Amino acid sequence: MLKKLIISASLSIASFANAEIVIGQSVPTTGIAAETGKAIALGASLYFNSINGRGGINGELINHLVRDDAYDAQRTLKNTQDFIEKENAVALISYFGTSGISELIKTKTLDNSGIPLVGIHSGAESIRSANNLFIFNTRSSFNQETDRLIKLLAGNLGVTKIAVVAEKGELGVAGVAALKASLAKNQLKLVGEAWYDHKSGDTNKAAQELAKINPEAIIVVALSKPAASFVQQYKEKGGTSQLYSLSPVQFEEVAKTIGKKGAHGLGISQVYPYPYNTRSKLIQEFQAAVFNEMGTGSGKEESLSAIANYPSYAMLEGYISARLIVEAIKRAGKNPTRSAIYNALTTMKKYDLGGFTIDYSDKNRNGTSFGEITMMSPTGALSR
Questions:
Q1: Which residue, 104, 168, 240, 267, has most beta carbons within 10 Å?
Q2: What gap in Å lies between CA 356 and CA 383, rounded to an integer?
Q3: Is 224 helix (H, G, I), strand (E, B) or coil?
Q4: How far apart are the first and last CA of the chain?
Q5: What pLDDT digit, counting tens, does each position of 171-215 carry?
Q6: Residue 291 phi/psi, 5° resolution?
Q7: Facing residues of 22 across strands?
Q8: Does residue 149 share a domain with residue 172?
Q9: Which CATH number do you get for residue 117?
Q10: Which segments does the entry list as coiled coil (predicted)?
Q11: At 136, is the secondary structure helix, strand, or coil?
């Protein structure tokens, strides 16, 4: 069993020459979204390694292949085609972002090959369409996230002047559409919109535009690094708005980018349980997996601090998806095929992972509606 996991631009985690169960994963391990992509892959590998350490599934080891897509839709498509055509993968796990998945949907890559994909790091409604039957979601939608945020701001706090900053890309388009729909339910409209280039991540102009408006609150639809830059630049330009982001933002990466004090006060929508809540059975098992793989032998508490070296919610996301795939493979039986794993996933109705329930059926792929809103403290931690 591996004690140190090194994630590079293109890798195979826990790869075995004789493995018969191939699972593919396309995430960014280079570029603007690399830290989150690496963490998602690491979280999945933790569980797969624990399964392989116990002899695999029905005596067959899992070959978890991870390929870098650098947050580029065409590379996501190419990686997926290779998994299907060259690697003979039986399932796909925890992909990253909206644009790459949109490309898979447009080309019908999953449908034509009959391969299930468990977990998408996106809550875009277009991905959650009932027509996308081969995509099994593990997080609530952007619409559900923005509904919660607007309920807090407008319903509980009386905040009505709300603006948005978003990336010029499918993540931004999906997030802003969800936000506008949530505002409309409360007879509200955005008082300002600012957009930044998703490739460069330069948010300076967007911060300047919204600082002039200085609304009561701003919703950030971005990845972690651009979100952090915007928070810092906006405050430097005199902006005093309450700042909230959707779940793609990882709090550890924000604190690392602009410092704990600079990140203080940022609210973040979360779609998974708090990774440090030891009262949850799921989190207890997640932390044990981290300890078993990354433990130093000097004590569990010290070893678990390793979680903080990675975006912890993203690690948990990959871990959850891996558990779901393993359960589906077990249900599929000896020599699992793509169709057998797909069919097994559709039988996972109200499947309790230990305080976090996934609900799939013949037509339902949305999985969960879990969500909560957290706030970054001056120490860089989260309050809930």
A1: 104
A2: 20
A3: helix
A4: 35
A5: 999 999 999 999 999 999 999 999 999 889 999 999 999 999 999
A6: -65, -45
A7: 63
A8: yes
A9: 3.40.50.2300
A10: none
A11: strand
Q: 310 pLDDT band (50/70/90 cuts)?
A: confident
Q: For the beta carbon of residue 213, count every other beta carbon within 10 angstroms.
A: 15
Q: Is position 336 within any domain? A: yes
296 assigned to some structural domain: yes
Cα–Cα distances in angstroms (integers) from residue 282 to residues 33, 226, 320, 323, 384, in the given order: 26, 31, 9, 10, 18
Task: Report the amino acid identity of residue 61.
Answer: L
* Kind of pairing between the strands at 372-376 and 382-383: antiparallel
Residue type, 371: G
Which helix (H) or strand (E) element contains residue 93? strand 91-96
Closest CA to 61 of 135, 11, 1, 9: 1
Give a yes or no: residue 114 inside a domain.
yes
**How buried is 125 (Cβ within 10 angstroms: 0-12 exposed, 13-18 middle, 19+ buried)?**
middle
d(CA 192, CA 213): 7
pTM above 0.70, yes or no: yes
- Domain range for 182 is 142-270
Quote the CA–CA distance of 124 and 121 in Å, as a whole number: 9
Which helix (DSSP H) or strand (DSSP E) does residue 12 occupy? strand 11-13
Is residue 91 located within the same domain as residue 235?
Answer: no
Residues 194 and 306 placed together within one structural domain of the fold: no
Nearest residue to 57 via CA among 44, 68, 48, 69: 48
- Cα–Cα distance for residue pair 97/79, rounded to 1 Å: 14
Select from 214, 203, 149, 151 the least CA-distant residue to 172: 203
- Integer-rounded Cα radius of gyration of the chain: 20
Cα–Cα distance for residue pair 165/163, rounded to 1 Å: 7
Strands 351-352 and 357-358 turn out to be antiparallel
Place of tokens 């903080």: 308
**b/e code 89-98 from CB counts within 10 Å (16+ = b):** bbbbbbbbbb
Residue 370 lies in a domain: no
What's the mean per-residue pLDDT of the chain?
A: 92
Residue 236: per-residue pLDDT: 97
The amino acid sitting at 301 is E
Number of domains in the chain: 2
The full DSSP string for 286-347 is: HHHHHHHHH--SS-HHHHHGGGGGS-HHHHHHHHHHHHHHHHHHHHH-SS--HHHHHHHHTT
Question: Domain boundary residue among 270, 288, 319?
Answer: 270
Q: Give per-residue pLDDT as tens, 346-374.
A: 999 999 999 999 999 998 999 999 999 99
Structure tokens at 344: 């097994």
